[in-house]
Amino acid sequence: MRTSDGTYLAVVEFGGGGPPVLLLHGLMGRATTWWSVARRLTDHGRVLGLDARGHGRSQAAGPWTTDRMADDAADLLEQAGAGPAVVIGHSMGGLHALALAARRPDLVRGVVVEDMAVDLTGLAGRPVADMAAWFGAVPQPFACREAVREAFGYPRRELGDYMAECVEERADGLHLLTRVRDALEIATGWTREARWADLDAVGCPVLLVEAEESVAPAGQMAAMAERLGAEHHVLPGTGHLVHADEKAFLGVVEPFLTRCR
C-alpha cells in the first residue's frame, strides 16, 4: 500500500473474517514475526499485519516519528476498509497502537500493548547506546539463519528466532532487513519524548501485557494501567518477546478480544 505521504508499506493478510485485528511488530521486526500467534487469532476476526516503514518489505523512508508511524497504521485501516480494529502492538508497535487510538479513535475499538512504556526519557539514552553497542558487536553478513539465532539468541532463544525471521539473502550472505541507523533514530525519539498525554486521549478498552523480565521502567506499565483504567497482566517466566509464550499470551489476549467484539 501507499501511505498518505507516498511511502510504500507491505501488508500481510493472515486470514480470518469479521471484526479486524491489526498486529504491529517491534523494532527490527516485521509482520511475519507474528505468524503463529496471528493464525490463532483468525478465530477472532480478519487479522492484518503491517511491516513498519524501514522494516520487512516496506520502504525505508522517514520521518521515523511515533506520530507518522501511527498515521501509517491509520492509512492501512482506511485503505483496507478495516476499522474499527483491535490493535495489538509489541514493543514499538504497542507505542504506535496507543498513539493511533489517541489520534484516530474512530479506527480503534481496543488496544493490546505488549511490554512497552510511554516514557523512556529518564533513561538518558541508555537503550540507544546499548542497542548501538549490541549491533556493532554483531557484524553482517551472516552465513545462515542459525548464525543469526546464535548471534541474537542469548540469553533468550526466542529473540534469536525472531531475528532469524528479519533478514534477507544477498550475494554475500544474510543481512538485517532494517538498517541499524534507522532503528537507532526511532529509538532515540523514544528517549526524547514522553507520551503520557496519549493515554488521556484513549477512550477504548486497553490491555497491558508486561513481561516478567520487562524492558519497561519498573512500575511504569502499572502506572499506565491506573491512568487508563486498563487491565494489566505480568506474565511469569516471560521476556520482552512475551508472545513467544503463546499459551500465556493468548490466555489473556483472547478473552480481551471477545470482550471487544
UniProtKB/TrEMBL annotation:
Residues 19-245 form the AB hydrolase-1 domain. It comes from the Bacteria. The keyword Hydrolase applies. The keyword Hydrolase applies. GO terms for molecular function: hydrolase activity. Keywords: Hydrolase. This is Alpha/beta hydrolase.
